[in-house]
Amino acid sequence: MHITQSDNIQNAYKGEVEFIIKDRHGRKLDAIRQNNIIKISAKEILSHRLTPNKVWDPSGESGNGAWVTHDIDIDEYAPRYIILGASFDVDGNPLDTADTRFYIEDTITGSFMPRSLNVGADNDGDIINAIPIAEPNRPLKRIERVYYEPTYQPAGTPLLEDDVRALNNIVVFETTLRIDEYNGLGLTSSDFFTITEVALVGAAEVGSVGACECTPKEIFTTGSSNGDAFLASASGSATISLDSSETEVDLISEGDQIKIVEAGSTATESSSILGQVNPYYLVINKAEGGKDITLDRTPTDNNGTPITGDIGVFRDGMRIFSHRLLSAPVKKSEAVEIVIRWRIILN
Questions:
Q1: Is the peptide bond before 158 cis (omega within 30 degrees of 0)?
Q2: Which of 49, 238, 259, 337 fits 314 for a cystine, CB–CB 3.0-4.6 Å?
């Protein structure tokens, strides 16, 4: 895994984002490539995807042994989406590099550079300003093509050729912003988006979401069957407990990420986070059928005071492989089509 803390750490997983801009006749106008590293969380996602869907049970088949299905939903860990964020204000007007959420001005050169991402890009812990979904013009962008690219490396041992050999060690995930997609929040043909961030996301399969005007994060947020968060209680420790009225307790399992909110909140009420700096927690222990959930840390407010009493809990099903702030915004209007390719280089 490539980690930025030391130059001495091996570049095991690197990434690259490419935007290919074409006119309405399919002619290539420009291509923008930016190197990117894959987030540390991708190590977990890749390991789940490499897991076979069955394991060997020595006692299966009446003691003769058999392959049986395990309880990991590996499909939820597949990279399926390219999520986009853009620079726009509350009225939908593009801001370009004037948006201080994304860019900072170099006082010496006067040029703009993307801000460094810290832990949890914002209070939602993912994209800074996701483009709201409104199909068909602003759809949830699914991966539309997956393929491998070869690189050529010295043959080494065993010596397959005298000089080099091809290795399929670059996987490419591709989607296309078509002519009629992502052309602004306004109503005229002159509207456009300035796309400022892009993320490669693993999540469950989701079909049409309609013109919901919601963020992609909300689509993959799961709560109780009535649409609210799971009712739970916090004890001031790292263990919270689902309420006895909740029956679908196994929708949350060990290894999931959850979001703690006010009791009775819905997925769209992002402000109801009980004053927490980051409302997202990792489930490190939960028994099947049990109601007690052990988290990676004690839920506290921004003053460090442990949270107690009734809370709401959502399961977060959106897993970000990698998140990139673009060095300069990419403009999208009805005059161009943009092909987005995300490469993961497996050294």
A1: yes
A2: 259
* Same domain (yes/no): 25, 174: yes
Q: What is the pLDDT of residues 61-108, one digit of tens each?
A: 888 888 888 766 667 777 889 999 998 887 888 888 888 888 888 888
pLDDT band at 10 (very low <50, low <70, confident <90, very high): very low
Q: Report the alpha-carbon distance of residue 64 to residue 173 in Å, rounded.
A: 42
Q: How far apart are CA 196 and CA 213, in angstroms?
A: 19
For residues 216 and 81, is the Cβ–Cβ distance under 8 A?
yes
Among the listed residues 62, 81, 189, 61, the one whose alpha carbon sits nearest the alpha carbon of residue 130:
81
Alpha-carbon distance of 347 to 339, in angstroms, equals 25
pTM over 0.70: yes
Does the pLDDT of residue 123 top 50, yes or no?
no
What sign has the CA pseudo-torsion 292, 293, 296, 299? Answer: negative
The residue written with tokens 């620079």 in the block is 87
| 143 and 253 part of one domain | no
- Note whether 99 and 193 are within 8 A (CB): no
Which residues on neighbouring strands pair with residue 20, listed in sequence order? 31, 339
d(CA 227, CA 314): 10
Distance CA 287, CA 316 (A): 19
Check: CB of residue 137 under 8 Å from CB of residue 210: no
Residue 131's identity, in one-letter code, is I
Confidence check: pLDDT of 279 > 80: yes
- Look up the domain containing 44 and give its range: 1-220+318-347
Beta strands in the chain (DSSP E): 13-23, 28-37, 54-57, 66-69, 79-86, 103-105, 112-114, 145-154, 164-177, 193-202, 221-222, 230-235, 239-242, 257-261, 280-285, 292-295, 308-316, 319-332, 336-346
The CATH number of whichever domain residue 284 belongs to comes to 2.40.30
The answer to whether residues 210 and 77 belong to one domain is yes
Rounded to whole angstroms, the Cα distance separating 159 from 169 reads: 19
